[in-house]
Design goal:
By secondary structure, the chain is mostly beta strands. It folds into two domains: 26-146, OB fold (Dihydrolipoamide Acetyltransferase, E2P); 147-231, no CATH class. The protein has three helices and 13 strands. It has helices at 2-20, 30-36, 128-136; strands spanning 39-53, 58-71, 78-86, 101-108, 115-118, 124-125, 142-143, 169-170, 186-192, 195-206, 209-217, 226-227, 230-231. The protein has a five-stranded mixed beta barrel. A hairpin with a 6-residue loop joins strand 4 and strand 5. It is globular.
Length: 234
């Protein structure tokens, strides 16, 4: 009898602990998470440390590498996400295992420029279905984080599903451009007979004059426009 009671108590404790450490899908649609989040980033969890643990809470500090800003701006390429995990008063929780790619929904938190905390939404682990979802979700951006020289953003909000979207694509580098050249790039992406094209409007400001070039190029061809004595090429 005593042995039976001990087994029942052990099962109860294991089940209680499992529930406390389980992230339950809250059922919020991806589009709703996007709409209700001030900042949405795509990237990889680098490290994870327990910040606070009780019988009701399990919170982590996450170091997260940002590869692309899907919503928001002026974000460093490495941020700290605090209070991720199981939190009292929250329906959703976050796990963010190191080495995995995720889309996370966060807000600024604390005084540090790189400090953020998750909203009451579960992260989305990146897989092939996620990439398809990003292409079909409208009003997303493809902005690289600060000091990034390579655009690692996936395709998002493609015109086949979002024909009215005007997607801003920019790569922010720590290096400044010489000769007072200012680049303002707006790109739209579309699929025409299984060929991928990009259209960009590039404005070059130099010596008080403004030269506007419109380039249309595909995988196999590039067109360069020359106006007076100025040449701009890739």
């Amino acid at each position: 009898m005593i042995r039976m009671l001990l087994i029942i108590c052990l099962i109860f404790l294991i089940e209680t602990d499992a529930k406390r450490h389980r992230c339950v899908n809250s059922g919020v649609l991806f589009s709703d998470k996007i709409m209700r989040s001030p900042i949405v980033v795509y990237g990889q969890s680098i490290s994870k440390k327990i910040h606070f643990e009780t019988n009701t809470e399990l919170l982590f500090n996450i170091t997260f590498r940002v590869d692309c800003i899907l919503k928001g701006e002026d974000i460093e390429n490495q941020i700290e996400i605090t209070e991720a995990g199981i939190k009292v008063g929250h329906t959703a929780c976050q796990w963010l295992e190191p080495g995995e790619r995720y889309i996370v929904f966060v807000e600024k938190w604390g005084t540090s420029m790189n400090s953020y905390r998750p909203l009451d939404f579960q992260e989305v682990m990146v897989d092939n279905m996620t990439y398809e979802l990003l292409e079909k979700t409208c009003h997303l951006t493809r902005i690289s984080p600060l000091h990034s020289k390579i655009n690692k953003c996936p395709n998002v909000s493609i015109s086949e599903y979002c024909p009215h979207d005007d997607i801003d694509t920019s790569i922010t580098s720590s290096e400044e451009h010489p000769n007072n050249i200012n680049f303002n790039v707006k790109s739209s992406y579309f699929d025409d007979d299984n060929k991928f094209y990009r259209q960009s409007n590039v404005t070059i400001i130099k010596d008080g004059s403004i030269i506007t070039q419109i380039e249309n190029y595909s995988k196999n061809s590039e067109i360069f426009n020359i106006n007076q004595d100025y040449l701009y090429s890739y």
